[in-house]
Design goal:
Helix 9 links the parallel strand 7 and strand 8. The chain is built from 14 helices and 15 strands. It folds into 2 domains: 165 residues, Aspartate Aminotransferase, domain 1, CATH 3.90.1150.10; 273 residues, Aspartate Aminotransferase, domain 2, CATH 3.40.640. The chain is α/β, with parallel strands linked by helices. Helix 12 packs parallel to helix 14. Bound molecules: pyridoxal-5'-phosphate (PLP).
């Protein structure tokens, strides 16, 4: 359904709640401005209603979580049933049947499906913690302290995940306390080639770039201290950056050659966001450990680190009663049930086809949008994970304009967010249940909003 605005944005109730929140929540959490935020009251499909009765079209899937749209009936029913029966258990002591079922299902969908034997799972409460579980696994398995990570990456903000996150915005305030086990290499972003090849699409990437990357990676890995390579197969919050075709196969080769474990962070890209079940399927490369979250549950704080059985069992000793990595809410039954139901829905329909078709439509729309103003830069992405850069008159990143566009779109009833290392990418990660007319409407609104800005 298209947006319907009954009051100005934000309306009076949202404005009142923002004042209340400002008084009691740490001021660094929720961004408040005259045009932001709206407080959500309910949501269905790709739509959200705020406390003032305005209906919005959500192009974010709520940070990539609601891939199936909001409140699909089977998930609501599963939650209601589970909540009435059991919504807390003793995760690492006396767990629920749902936890066992989810671990089995995650093994099937990953390592078993890749014919690499069973997978073993560590469930966590956030994506950040899933990355930390993978880092701990790699350390225990290899006894090598170093981790190779990438500029522009986002793996979460817990101290462990932040250590491998390649964004100075998040790192700098804490850098004195951050451990120094991560080494960063450039992520091959073809539109702004770190090795200074002229801007181009990934398919036309120069072999020189690959060789330049290879030289840098070999120097690092040859020191023998790197136990893990952690990478988003497509950078999400870094601005929908799709690497060239050589990148993931080369990482696999380097990990094997130098005895490091390859960790794919598919927390954002997993479960058909890019058109395939996992983004890494586009290049047919398999990791040793995979981190999953967001769309996994459709909306419960639960994520997972899944690893090849032989690696997990080599790393982690049998529990003697005190788990080395766990938490109070580990394997929460409600979260596990939501994940099982979400996975059933995600696997039951040909989402790949729909996401690819809608993604193609969105991409064509973004290419047309590019023509309408000199303030649009590169557009890129895969499936329903796409972005377009916003630039100033000199073609430089324009984060201020990007922020104004996000607010202008909200005022037009469309929820969209900015991303990218320079905060100048408008990101599109809509629910898969959005339709072409809704995407066209959003793009038409964006065209108008941008023209008013110029
Ligand atoms: C690729 C990736 N990894 C990890 C995370 C962190 O997940 P969480 O916010 O659940 O800690 C995110 C969050 O956006 C992400 O996009």
């Amino acid at each position: 359904m298209l947006p319907e605005l009954v009051t100005s944005i934000p309306g009076p109730r949202s404005r009142g709640l923002a004042v209340e929140l400002r008084a009691h929540e740490s001021r660094n959490i929720t961004y408040v401005s005259p045009g932001f935020p709206v407080f959500w009251e309910r949501a269905h499909g790709p739509n959200v209603w705020d406390v003032d009765g305005n209906r919005f079209l959500d192009l974010t899937s709520g940070f990539g979580v609601a891939s199936l749209g909001y409140t699909p009936q089977p998930i609501v029913e599963a939650m209601q049933d589970q909540a009435a029966r059991l919504y807390h258990a003793m995760g690492d002591v006396h767990p629920s049947a749902e936890k066992a079922a989810l671990c089995r299902r995650l093994s099937q969908l990953t390592f078993e499906n890749w014919n690499l034997g069973p997978g073993k799972v560590i469930l966590t409460n956030s994506g950040s913690e899933a990355v930390e579980a993978a880092l701990k696994t790699a350390w225990l398995a290899t006894q090598r302290r170093g981790v190779l990570a990438f500029n522009g990456s986002y793996h979460g903000l817990g101290y462990g995940a932040l250590t491998v996150t390649g964004r100075s915005l998040f790192r700098d305030p804490f850098k004195t306390q951050l451990a120094d086990f991560a080494s960063f290499l450039p992520f091959p972003i073809c539109q702004h080639c770190p090795w200074h090849a002229p801007g181009r699409e990934p398919s036309a990437c120069l072999p020189d770039c690959m060789n330049a990357f290879l030289r840098q990676a070999e120097i690092l890995l040859a020191k023998g201290d790197i136990g893990a390579i952690v990478v988003e197969p497509v950078q999400g919050r870094g601005g929908e950056v799709v690497p060239p075709g050589w990148f993931l196969p080369l990482l696999r080769q380097l990990a094997d050659q130098f005895g490091a474990l390859l960790i794919f962070d598919e927390i954002y890209t997993g479960f058909y966001r890019t058109g395939h079940r996992f983004a890494s399927d586009h290049w047919n490369v398999q990791p040793d450990l995979i981190c999953l979250g967001k769309a996994l549950t459709s909306g419960f704080p639960l994520a997972a680190c899944v690893g090849r059985e032989k690696i997990m069992d080599a790393a982690w000793p049998e529990s003697t009663g005190e788990a080395l990595h766990t938490s109070t809410f580990l394997g929460n039954p409600l979260g596990c049930r939501m994940a099982l139901q979400s996975l059933e829905l995600l696997e039951a329909e040909p989402w790949s086809e729909r996401v690819e078709a809608l993604g193609h439509h969105l991409h064509s729309g973004l290419l047309k949008l590019q023509e309408t103003s000199r303030h649009w830069g590169w557009t890129r992405g895969l499936g329903l994970m796409r972005g377009i850069e916003v630039v100033d008159a000199n073609g430089q990143p324009d984060p201020a304009r990007t922020g104004r566009l996000v607010e202008a779109m909200l005022a037009r009833g469309i929820i969209i967010l900015s991303g990218g290392v320079e905060q100048n990418v408008l990101s599109f990660t809509p629910p898969f249940v959005i339709d072409e007319a809704e995407l066209d409407f959003a793009l038409a609104q964006l065209t108008e909003a941008a023209l008013r800005e110029s």
